[in-house]
C-alpha cells in the first residue's frame, strides 16, 4: 500500500501548472520552482508596533524572482516596499524576517485536490533579512516585479516606494511526507527552477 501511495504521489508531482514539478528528492530545485511560480508570500516580522512590540506579525506581500516563464527566475525574492507599511516599520527596527510561499496560490494544489496544509501542496519557508537593493540591482528588481505586478508601476509616487530583496540565510522545504528538508543558500542558488 505504501509503495502504491508513493508511486501515485510521484506521478502527481510530475505535472504542475507552470511545468514539471521537481521530484521530492530535489529539494533545492523544489524551493526555486515554488518561489518562481508564486506571486506573493507571507512575510513574518517581529512587531515594533505599540501593543504588539516583540510579537510575531505576518503580512502578505507581492514578490517576484524574475519574469514569468521556465528558467527565468533568479531565486532572489524581490519586493516593492514603502516606509508607510507597518511591516516595513518593523523591519526598520529589526530586519530579520521569514517568508513563506506555497503552491496553494497556483492552480496546482486545487487541480490535485490538495489542501494547502497537505505536504504535497509544497511550501517553502525562507529565513533571513530584508535589504534595500543597490542601484546596480534596482533594474533587475524592477523588471522582476513589474513583469508580474504591472499595477505597481502606477502606485502613488508620494509613498516613496523602493525595491528590496529577501537576503536568504536559511531554507526549509515541505513538499512530501516525512518532515521538512533543509536546503542551504548555496544549494538553492546553484540550481535552476
TrEMBL record:
It is found in: Secreted. Residues 1-20 form the signal peptide. Keywords: Glycoprotein, Secreted, Signal. GO terms for cellular component: cytoplasm; endomembrane system; extracellular space. It holds the Pfam family CREG_beta-barrel. Transmembrane segments: none annotated. It comes from the Eukaryota. Residues 22-190 form the CREG-like beta-barrel domain. Belongs to the CREG family. This is CREG1 protein. It comes from Podargus strigoides. The gene is Creg1.
Amino acid at each position: 500500500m505504501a509503495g502504491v501511495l508513493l508511486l501515485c504521489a510521484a506521478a502527481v508531482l510530475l505535472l504542475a501548472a507552470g511545468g514539471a514539478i521537481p521530484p521530492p528528492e530535489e529539494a533545492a530545485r523544489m524551493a526555486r520552482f515554488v518561489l518562481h511560480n508564486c506571486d506573493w508570500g507571507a512575510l513574518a516580522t517581529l512587531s515594533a508596533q505599540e501593543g504588539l512590540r516583540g510579537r510575531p506579525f505576518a503580512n502578505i506581500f507581492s514578490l517576484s524572482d524574475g519574469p514569468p516563464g521556465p528558467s527565468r527566475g533568479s531565486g532572489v525574492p524581490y519586493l516593492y516596499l514603502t516606509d508607510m507599511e507597518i511591516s516595513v516599520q518593523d523591519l526598520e527596527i529589526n530586519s530579520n524576517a521569514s517568508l513563506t510561499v506555497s503552491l496553494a496560490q497556483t492552480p496546482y494544489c486545487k487541480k490535485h485536490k490538495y489542501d494547502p496544509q497537505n505536504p504535497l501542496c509544497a511550501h517553502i519557508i525562507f529565513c533571513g533579512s530584508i535589504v534595500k537593493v543597490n542601484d546596480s540591482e534596482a533594474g533587475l528588481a524592477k523588471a522582476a516585479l513589474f513583469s508580474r505586478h504591472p499595477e505597481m508601476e502606477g502606485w502613488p509616487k508620494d509613498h516613496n516606494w523602493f525595491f528590496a530583496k529577501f537576503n536568504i540565510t536559511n531554507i526549509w522545504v515541505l513538499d512530501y511526507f516525512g518532515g521538512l528538508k533543509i536546503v542551504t543558500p548555496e544549494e538553492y542558488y546553484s540550481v535552476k527552477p
